[in-house]
Specification:
There is one protein chain. The chain is of the alpha+beta class and 84 residues long. It has one domain. The protein has 3 helices and 2 strands; from the N terminus they run ααββα.
C-alpha cells in the first residue's frame, strides 16, 4: 500500500474511514495468519485485508491493486457502514 496510500485520490478516504495497520508476514501473529487464510487466492504480497470494527473479515486482495480500484473499494466499504 505504500505506493497507494500517499496518493491524493486515495489518502482522504483511507484516513477518514479506516485504520491502516501493517503486519510483518515473515513473523506474523496468529490473528494476521487467520485473516490472511480467508483470502481465497492469497498468492503474493502485499495482502490487503478489510475487517469490521469487531475484527470480522469483510474482504481482501492479494498482490498489486490499482489505485482507482483501491479507492472504489474504500468508498464502497465506507458507504456500507453509513446508516441508511
Amino acid at each position: 500500500m505504500q505506493g497507494v496510500v500517499p496518493r491524493p485520490d486515495v489518502a482522504p478516504l483511507l484516513q477518514q474511514h479506516f485504520v491502516a495497520l501493517a503486519a510483518d508476514c515473515d513473523d506474523a501473529e496468529d490473528e494476521v495468519l487467520h485473516l490472511a487464510g480467508m483470502l481465497e487466492d492469497a498468492q503474493m504480497l502485499p495482502f490487503v485485508l478489510f475487517t469490521g470494527p469487531d475484527g470480522r473479515f469483510l474482504e481482501g486482495a492479494s498482490g498489486a491493486v490499482q489505485p482507482a480500484t483501491f479507492a472504489k473499494t474504500l468508498q464502497r466499504l465506507a458507504d456500507a457502514r453509513r446508516p441508511q
